[in-house]
Amino acid sequence: MKHLPIKIFIPVLVFSILLVSLSANVANAESIPEWIKNNALWYGQGIVSESEFINAIKFLIDNGVIVIESTEEIAPIVVDAMILIPNGNFDVSGSGFYLPLNLEIFRGATVTWVNEDSVPHNIQSQDEFGKVSDVFNSPPLNTGDRFEFTFEEAGVYNYYCSFHPWRVGLVTVK
Ligand SMILES: [Cu+2]
Fold first, then answer.
1. How many whole angstroms from 92 Cα to the centroid of ligand 1?
2. Which residue among 64, 73, 97, 101 is buried most deeply as judged by most CB within 10 Å?
3. Cross-strand bridge partners of residue 99
């Protein structure tokens, strides 16, 4: 069996691939103009140039016969998160920082603070000047207690504990 000359083989291969990819859409497959079908042949025979052949493919794309799937922006997966108030958090000279100290989340995520310290704490949102704001405010949380808040808007949120005002934390919402 004779091999096709490479110059014919490639466009035939390309065209075959196009037809296979189009076979799923019969309505569109019928909209391939005759001249484009001939183009593949003529390109193989050296009658049309490479740029003309590419233009034919471009025509199919421009007219929606070939649909190139665009990479759509993937919506972030909203993952709820937890902030631990660790044991020793009350101690001004200790290193019991909120874990994590700066939590990064996406909009829609619910954050749960968990008090794992031996004394009560609360969570008070603060404005940019450090004043308590009413975005989220927990009651006193005893050991083991939790407090939840769902962040619907992007931004940087500061909070602190009014019993231990040296304990400040951040939630960054994207
Ligand atoms: Cu506290």
1. 10
2. 97
3. 84
